[in-house]
Amino acid sequence: MNRSKLFAVLFILAAFSATLWMFQKIPHPVTLHINNSWHVMLIGEEDSQSVKFNQQEIWLQKQDSANLWLEGIGTIQWKTHHIKVEKNQLSFNQQVIERSNAKLDVHLMLYPDGRVTKGKATLKSNE
């Protein structure tokens, strides 16, 4: 391998490594995947450990640095907010979001100041 090819390979590896390192340093909001139906993004939250819940009501299925996969019905505590999970509805403080169809995937964004942005609702694929 001549010097120019070696330089090109090293340059590409360095660029890939730098991109991967920068991507890991970008803060990502924590997303709660609740009952495989609710996908709740907690805007401004970077630590999944700050989300509290009663483990007898809601079970942690799996977790990574920016996602919690939860199952069950109960209350989730985030900062000073309460997220109440029921079968076909989710309450954020005093706001209630209902699903009209049990096969809907609902995407929401919750903000620390209490605002809710309702995202898209899509039908689940047949699995």
What does this structure look like?
There is one protein chain. With 127 residues, the chain is of the alpha+beta class. It has one domain. The chain is built from one helix and eleven strands; from the N terminus they run αβββββββββββ. The protein has one helix at residues 3-25, and strands at 30-34, 38-42, 51-53, 58-63, 67-72, 74-78, 81-85, 89-92, 95-98, 104-110, 116-123. 17% of the residues are buried.
Layout of SSEs?
Layout: H1 3-25, E1 30-34, E2 38-42, E3 51-53, E4 58-63, E5 67-72, E6 74-78, E7 81-85, E8 89-92, E9 95-98, E10 104-110, E11 116-123
Parallel strand pairs: 1-5, 2-10
Antiparallel strand pairs: 1-2, 3-6, 4-5, 6-7, 7-8, 8-9, 10-11
Low-confidence stretches: none
Mean pLDDT: 86
Number of H/I helices: 1
Q: Termini distance? A: 49 Å
- Main sheet makeup: 6 strands, mixed
Category from helices, strands and their pairing: alpha+beta
Q: Helix amount, in percent?
A: 10-25%
- Placed side by side, the strands forming the largest sheet appear as 4-5-1-2-10-11
Number of strands: 11
Q: What shape does the CA trace take?
A: elongated
- Oligomeric organization of the protein chains: single chain
| Helix-strand sequence | HEEEEEEEEEEE
β-strand amount: over 45%
